[in-house]
Amino acid sequence: AALYGLDRWGDPYFSVSDRGHVMVQPRGDRGGSLDLMELVQELQGRDLSLPLLIRFDDILEDRLERLHGAFERAIAQYGYAGRYQGVFPVKCNQQRHVVEELVSSGRRWHFGLEAGSKAELLIALSLIDDPEALLICNGYKDQRYIETAILARRLGRQPVVVVEQADEVERIISASHELGAAPLIGIRAKLSARSTGRWGSSVGERAKFGLGIPELLATVEALRAADLLGELRLLHFHVGSQINDIAVLKDALQEAGQIYGELTKLGAPMGYLDVGGGLGIDYDGSRTASSASTNYSLQNYANDVVATVKECCEPHGIPVPTLVSESGRALASHFSVLVFDVLGAGSLPGAVPTPLESEALILRNLRDTYAAITAPEASVEALQEAWNDALKFKHDALATFRLGYLSLPERGLAEQLTWACCQAIAERIKGLPAATVIPEELRALPAALASTYYANLSVFRSAPDTWAIDQLFPVLPIHRLDEKPEALGSFADLTCDSDGKIARFIDPARSSGQGQEKPLLELHNLRPGEPYWIGLFLGGAYQEVMGNLHNLFGSTNAVHIRLKANGGYQLDHVVRGDTNAEVLEVMEHNPELLLERLRVASEAAIGQGSLGISDARRLMAHLETSLRQTTYLQG
Ligand code: PLP
């Protein structure tokens, strides 16, 4: 577990059993656990093939409880005279079962939803029927969006239309006059506080959303003139997702707290301060301000929000607002685990090839070099010298091949011998005492010998952020963790794209605070006939919807698991992955037509005698079966 940092980022949901399997504690430290390997085996028994997305709804509920618990503790500790009322940003994971689960688990806290588009608004309006829950309407809005929000108020919903662009206020005013009713109104402020991290440009004068101070003041006056200032209830800001450094939040909170106070002084009733998203996840377990981590805990976050807002309001005698957060990543990251299988592994040949009857000088030189490396008395200096020689001989062998003086088999031998030298040096280095000074070049050799593990998944579909923004997710085998991994490797996915790989991993050994990552992961050698299953963790936020159909790899099978009170689990929902027919249809192809064309072609081939009837039937059967199956390789 320590090798993969699981004891740090996995706590309290993931651990390792004595049998070396990843265990899932879906209710955190409140008891109950599942063996992930056994769970996957049982799901496979139900014909749910890998790659498989396993969603643990108890984790989602536990995250909600922790978020509310943290705010409740902070409110009690600081004697805050208000309350916390969160919303889930639907864009973070719009899957029906996920949003439904959050809404039903969150009912006891009047937990609401945040929508950023008309489609998300539709989800939010239809799922939230609690009159106290908030429904925050962000994003670009046209007249219909605004009118929908106004009319939904009559259904007993609480939509808050947040003015994000200066011209939206005019649309709100005209829709309100048209309908003779007003929405609850919010304003998003463009803060000057500087943010850091990947989404740092979400704040500042050039941010995409929000009103600068002159625009904000003009909006207040426009609302006043339209007799709508009485509906201005909420101030919103968002400093970007995954805030790494808590100092950024503190600055933003102070600035927003002052703006909130000024808005009340200008006559707006206010009542809500929405601190947006940004509550981060410690992906690498380093607890630092590096891009894959946070230098604060959930409790620190809640404490800072509560304490800072109180400090801003109290001196001015302004009643403290209800605190709203739009925490998506922090709620949804842990609950889903992607499990994929390894189809095979490719590595460089490290064995010494058998000599030819008469070998070219260059090959004999390489064999002598190998002998020098494996000599028992070889010093580190001798190893370095031998490696320099091996590289020179390999280079010469290539030049000789290019000039036509070395045959293809001889060139093959030269390459094999070079890798054998590399392997032998790597072995020698492993056996040296820890204090030995080893040249950098030699230390890098084990990495040069690393294997590529072929993964039955599409990175573009299931973990797009690893490709798009270099996001680091914890990745590790879900079994064999009681065995020392012998190999170093990275993953190549099924797509025909060299970017389709996972080659950035958490390095728990590095504690520099400057990004905990390494290009290779400790992995096990594959055993013939035995599966090797890998889990990608903390990917429950944003990955599903950002995933694309590159090479026409579609969604994977997904399941929702709940722990049962008396032990064991229940399978609440099964969401089958896209079939080949479905992804073809997305691209406007007609699977029936494709099949028919191939049937006609195979009839013609039968007529010409190039294809037998039984082979034609087999071909058509394969095609028809593939159309019904998911887009991934079948074990
Ligand atoms: N609210 C707004 C306006 C956002 O743009 C985002 C995402 O960037 C969120 C909330 C959710 O942020 P997070 O997932 O970091 O909590």
Automatic annotation (TrEMBL):
Gene transcribed to yield this protein: speA
NCBIfam families referenced in this protein's UniProt entry, alphabetically: PRK05354.1 (NF003763), speA (TIGR01273)
EC number: 4.1.1.19
Name assigned to this protein: Biosynthetic arginine decarboxylase
GO biological process terms, semicolon-separated: L-arginine catabolic process; spermidine biosynthetic process
Gene3D superfamilies attached to this UniProt entry: 1.20.58.930, Alanine racemase, Lyase, Ornithine Decarboxylase, Chain A, domain 1
PANTHER family per UniProt: ARGININE DECARBOXYLASE, BIOSYNTHETIC ARGININE DECARBOXYLASE
Annotated positions of the N6-(pyridoxal phosphate)lysine modification: 91
Keyword tags: Decarboxylase, Lyase, Magnesium, Metal-binding, Polyamine biosynthesis, Pyridoxal phosphate, Spermidine biosynthesis
Active site, per annotation: 496
Family listed: Belongs to the Orn/Lys/Arg decarboxylase class-II family. SpeA subfamily.
Binding site for substrate: 273-283
Catalyzed chemical reaction(s): L-arginine + H(+) = agmatine + CO2
Pfam families: Arg_decarb_HB (PF17810), Arg_decarbox_C (PF17944), Orn_Arg_deC_N (PF02784)
InterPro entries: Ala_racemase/Decarboxylase_C, Arg_decarb_HB, Arg_decarbox_C, Arg_decrbxlase, De-COase2_CS, De-COase2_N, De-COase2_pyr-phos_BS, Orn/DAP/Arg_de-COase
Species assigned in the record: Cyanobium usitatum str. Tous
